[in-house]
Write a structure and sequence with these properties.
heterodimer; A: 466 residues; mainly alpha; 2 domains; 19 helices; 71% helix; B: 611 residues; alpha+beta; Penicillin-binding protein 2a (Domain 2); Beta-lactamase; six-stranded mixed sheet; five-stranded antiparallel sheet; 21 helices
């Protein structure tokens, strides 16, 4: 215990204290100013007290417990998630709560811990080979199994958090190509919503050529291949415009590209150019992906999610509908100015122009009452925490502790980035809490356990925990 | 050593990068961009205009003529609207859904974030029921307004009316915003700045449900409304009411002026309308109806109608002849043999003594005398040319205020017309003017046009022996700056010597009172020396207009009056009796000739019957 990292503990205490004062301000009302335990700030005080107890309990438990029982905890949580899906109660459209008498718990908050522990346990195995396809699939499985359950509970925000665990996988040696592919998918997703298909096809083909040049610099036959593609595309385009002008513009591009493919295959076969073949494969897959985005967007996403994405991308601006929350949130934050209106003086948050102001939009209260100084200070405090966690992770002797530390940092990072980004209009509105600031017991306890398990592991950093 | 150790810097860099991007974005949102601060105050601050009570109007004897009644305007701020129960809304306000949609569209066209009037002038009872449900209708709130009330149904044209300010004025004058009221005609328009007072504003903070949460900074930025000034009019309410009664079912005007001050005692435009019609929500519908009326009741005849003055103008020509030495008040006689004949030209007259001097000529309204006098003026060799002689005549005539606006403090006054030399040059050719061509001017026919108020002012000028004060309708702005009324205290003088006026007054006296018979004997009142002059104006629109101008009593005149009755025949038939009844009523407050009053009241010249 004497090895505990007091820096992080103090940072934690500072953050939960600031968080409580903000919830007090967000739920404070001049009409009934007397202190009461029935209010949100009253209850949050109880949650904080419980969180401190939980932290102590976590620190008391032997650190070997967490690695030993990681899979067991994971399995138990999966069962709980499944039962929530069957027997849970619905709050704000998400069937993600277990109600036990007066206590409501959101198991998704604890599933993050289970997934982190299990991921750490799996990746710290002696024979773990990060680049192998099999380990990649297992890592994905550990991350996305709980994610899938939570998605089915209709809690998209919490489900997406598990993607952050891939940062830990990256640290342990994930192939960079996966990262590039991920970025490419995100890019194509956004582009295909913003632009017409034929423009995206041109972008894909251009990217493929850039890849060619990077991989086989200045090969003579690349020029020929480019010429062939140009000629087939132009011919197809002209023919289609002439014969079937009612066809969409992307059809001739597709035909032209299709006609050129046999030549590419022949070319790569003759020169034994696996990488070029891979580029072609990716390009074809990209085209397929682009076409499926439209289907996914229209059929898989719910109407409110489509509206939020449309709003974020500026396709449909509806300040009364999907954009209302974000617009009011930006007004509240923007009205804070450099120094803010002062504690308890916010008008936009006080008079409820900002919805969900003590939970998902708590950052608005900080922005309005403490201004740019306050928001910057808070973001720097969070950055300090994140960097401190990375530093702690890197000093672990045991691989398990290090990976778990990365998982903790990644989860915190994802929550902070998405929550704050949403309130300032640069991330889509997916309701996930701001650690230590948003009102709610489950999320506070979840973050506390997540953090303090790592601090406990850090106490024993010189030991090899497997 | 772990081969991927350096990747910790990639992860750390990603964290720092995102946080820095956010700080940059926050800097832009919170420090650089000011628009969010404005949106925030739009969200939370509600400026409630405090409308002052509009000034009241009293008559010269302190009778209340125009006052106010409370009403409520329902305001809407489109960007604060939420869905609401349209059925309940319509039921509470008594309008249908179509109107709701139409009015909302109009409000949105005006502005999304500024409030504008949704429904004007809800009665206090209706508002009471609505207010209990106001919390259900986000984006709506009410403002207290006042409506005009007229206890006496008179003088509609004089009071004028108030209505919503038009878009152009609202844009150009920062005092007004869309939906505000402004005086549109009459005294309401001319004395708008005195009557309107000064708006105040109260600033409240509201929450997202549009509920008022308190005053902004304890009200230090609030301003109080200052009520408008009350106005005392020069009108005599009873005389005005009597005049309107006498003119019922007739078309024409009465203007009565106090000669010593120029104060308008009565100003009647017939047909008239109920001033209460142009108040409240029905105003535009009623206005449209009045507008469509073929008798044009909205037309303010005393100030806007131009008529030939007819024989009343002989008084002016007599004064000019005397001033210029063309005639002598006692010794100049002209003959009259049932008219004035030169070659094939003949201007008819009626039977009376001949030859006769100017006094008798006014008494009998002799056409021949004034034709001869006018030609003697124009052809007099002392002016060398007829052009300069005409110019001398015209300058004298315009010194009475003819041919230009008098400057009455009511809107839309017109100038009338005194023909110019250039007009005749265009008609007859330069240097080709002959006195016989324009001899009709001698008897007030031809191209001359006067407004009734100019005619009344002529009576007033003669009563004052050549001096007049600009006729005006406002006597006093109570507890206000009266300097704008100073111009009504300055006398104007004609360029006729005072000494000539008693001759004209004698002629006018005899026209009414001569035992040998004058044209206006019907206007005589026992015990009051009425001086008057009839006129019968030929006009191209049908039967002659009946005209009479008069003042009384002869010594120290109290009232000067002009009466026009359109298409009614001789001046003596209608105008003179009406003027006489008005004078008697004003001076003695009695009616000694009920038979005459009854005949005037029952005469229906519009529908052509006598009731």
């Amino acid at each position: 215990m004497q090895n505990i990292d007091w820096f992080t503990v103090i940072l934690y205490l500072v953050l939960i204290t600031l968080g409580w004062f903000n919830i007090y301000s967000a739920s404070y009302s001049a009409d009934h100013a007397s202190f009461s335990m029935a209010t949100r700030y009253g209850r949050q005080m109880i949650w904080i007290g419980a969180a401190v107890v939980i932290a102590i309990v976590v620190l008391v438990i032997d650190s070997k417990f967490y690695s030993t029982f990681a899979e067991l905890i994971y399995g138990a949580l999966m069962l709980i998630l499944l039962s929530v899906l069957l027997f849970g109660s619905t709050v704000n459209g998400a069937k993600s709560w277990i109600v036990l008498g007066p206590i409501q718990v959101q198991p998704a908050e604890f599933a993050k811990i289970a997934a982190s522990l299990t991921l750490a346990k799996y990746m710290s195995r002696y024979h773990f080979r990060p680049e192998s396809f099999k380990s990649m699939m297992i890592v994905f499985g550990i991350c996305f199994l709980p994610s899938a359950f939570i998605l089915l509970q209709n809690d998209t925000g919490s489900a997406l958090v598990f993607a952050a665990l891939l940062i830990a996988y990256f640290r342990e040696g994930m192939k960079p190509i996966l990262f590039i592919l991920g970025l490419l998918m995100a890019l194509l997703f956004v582009l295909s919503l913003l632009f017409e298909l034929h423009i995206i096809l041109i972008v894909i083909e251009a990217l493929a050529f850039v890849a060619f040049f990077v991989l086989r610099d200045n090969h003579k036959e690349l020029g020929i291949s480019f010429l062939i593609l140009l000629v087939t595309t132009a011919a197809a385009f002209g023919l289609c415009r002439w014969l079937a002008p009612q066809w969409p513009k992307y059809v001739p591009l597709l035909i032209g590209f299709g006609l050129a493919i046999p030549y590419y295959l022949y070319y790569t076969y003759r020169h034994k150019l696996g990488k070029i073949a891979a580029v072609i494969g990716i390009a074809v897959a990209s085209i397929g992906f682009t076409f499926s985005v439209g289907y996914f967007f229209d059929n898989v996403l719910a109407a409110h999610q489509r509206a939020r994405i449309n709003h974020l991308l500026g396709i449909e601006v509806d300040l009364q509908g999907a954009g209302y929350n974000v617009n009011q949130s930006m007004i509240a934050i923007g009205s804070g100015g450099l120094t803010g209106k002062g504690y308890l003086q916010g008008t936009q948050t006080k008079f409820k122009f900002v919805p969900e102001q003590s939970t998902d939009f708590i950052f608005c209260t900080i922005g309005e009452e403490w201004g740019f100084m306050g928001t910057t200070l808070l973001l720097l405090l969070f950055l300090t925490l994140l960097v401190r966690l990375l530093v702690l992770a890197e000093r672990q002797k045991s691989k398990f502790s290090r990976i778990y530390g990365y998982c903790v940092a990644s989860i915190f990072f994802f929550h902070i980035a998405v929550n704050v980004g949403m309130t300032i209009g640069i991330a889509p509105v997916i309701g996930i809490p701001l650690p230590f600031f948003s009102y709610g017991g489950s999320s506070l306890w979840g973050f506390t356990m997540l953090l303090f398990i790592f601090l406990k592991l850090d106490c024993n950093r010189m030991e090899l925990i497997t | 050593m772990n081969p991927f150790r350096q990747r910790c810097f990639v992860v750390g860099g990603l964290f720092a990068l995102i946080i820095l991007i956010y700080i940059g974005r926050l800097f832009f949102l919170q420090v650089v961009d000011q628009s969010y601060k404005m949106s925030a105050s739009n969200n939370v601050l509600r400026y409630v205009t405090q409308y002052p009570a509009r000034g009241l109007m009293y008559d010269r004897n302190g009778v209340l003529l125009v006052h106010n009644q409370a009403a409520y305007d329902l305001m809407v701020t489109p960007n604060q609207l939420h869905e609401f129960d349209t059925a309940l809304f319509c039921q509470l306000l008594g309008i249908d859904k179509e109107q709701v949609d139409k009015r909302l569209r109009k409000a949105k066209r005006y502005s999304y974030y500024k409030s504008s009037v949704f429904l004007e002038q809800i009665s206090a009872e209706q508002y009471g029921a609505f207010q209990e449900n106001l919390y259900q209708f986000k984006g709506f709130y009410a403002q207290t307004r006042s409506l005009r009330i007229y206890p006496h149904n008179i003088a509609a044209h004089t009071f004028g009316y108030v209505g919503e300010v038009d878009d152009k004025t609202a844009q150009n004058d920062s005092y007004y915003k869309s939906g505000d009221y402004i005086g549109i005609s009459g005294v309401e328009r001319m004395y708008e700045e005195q009557l309107r007072g000064k708006k105040g504003v109260e600033i409240f903070m509201v929450d997202v449900h549009n509920r008022i949460k308190g005053q902004y900074k304890n009200g230090i930025y609030d301003t109080l409304a200052v009520n408008g000034h009350d106005i005392t009019l020069t009108l005599d309410a009873r005389l005005q009411e009597y005049g309107e009664r006498l003119m019922q079912n007739k078309i024409g005007s009465i203007v009565a002026i106090e000669p010593a001050t120029g104060e308008i005692l009565a100003i009647v435009s017939a047909p008239t309308y109920d001033p209460g019609l142009l108040v409240g929500r029905e105003r535009s519908a009623n206005y449209k109806q009045l507008r469509a009326d073929s008798l044009n009741p909205l037309f303010c005849r005393p100030l806007q109608a131009r008529y030939p003055p007819g024989s009343t103008f002989k008084t002016v020509n007599a004064l000019i002849g005397l001033q210029e030495g063309i005639i002598n008040g006692l010794y100049t006689y002209y003959p009259c043999h049932y008219g004035y004949t030169v070659g094939r030209f003949h201007m008819g007259c009626h039977g009376h003594e001949s030859p006769l001097n100017v006094v008798s000529a006014l008494q009998h309204s002799c056409n021949a005398f004034f034709a001869a006098e006018y030609r003697a003026l124009l052809d007099n060799p002392k002016y060398q040319t007829i052009d300069s002689a005409f110019t001398v005549w015209r300058n004298h005539a315009t010194s009475f205020g003819f041919g230009s606006k008098l400057g009455v403090d009511l809107p839309y006054e017109v100038a009338g017309y005194v023909p110019t030399l250039s007009f005749y040059n265009r008609t007859y050719g330069k240097g080709r003017l002959k006195s016989l061509y324009i001899v009709s001017n001698s008897i007030g026919q031809g191209e001359l046009l006067l407004t009734p108020v100019q005619m009344a002012n002529l009576a007033s000028t003669i009563a004052n022996q050549g001096r007049y004060f600009t006729p005006h309708i406002v006597k006093e702005i109570r507890e206000g700056d009266n300097s704008i009324l100073d111009r009504f205290r300055e006398p104007h003088y004609t360029d006729i010597d005072t000494t000539y006026f008693p001759i004209i007054i004698e002629g006018m006296y005899r026209a009414v009172n001569s035992p040998t018979g004058g044209t206006a004997g019907v206007a005589a009142i026992r015990g009051i020396d009425v001086c008057g002059k009839t006129g019968t104006a030929e006009n191209p629109h049908g039967k002659d207009h009946s005209i009479f101008m008069a003042f009384a009593p002869r010594e120290n005149p109290q009232i000067a009056i002009a009466v026009y009755v359109e298409n009614a025949g001789f001046g003596a038939s209608y105008a003179a009796p009406i003027a006489s009844l008005m004078i008697e009523r004003y001076l003695t407050d009695t009616v000694t000739r009920p038979w005459l009053e009854k005949r005037m009241l029952s005469m229906d010249l519009i529908n052509g019957t006598t009731r």
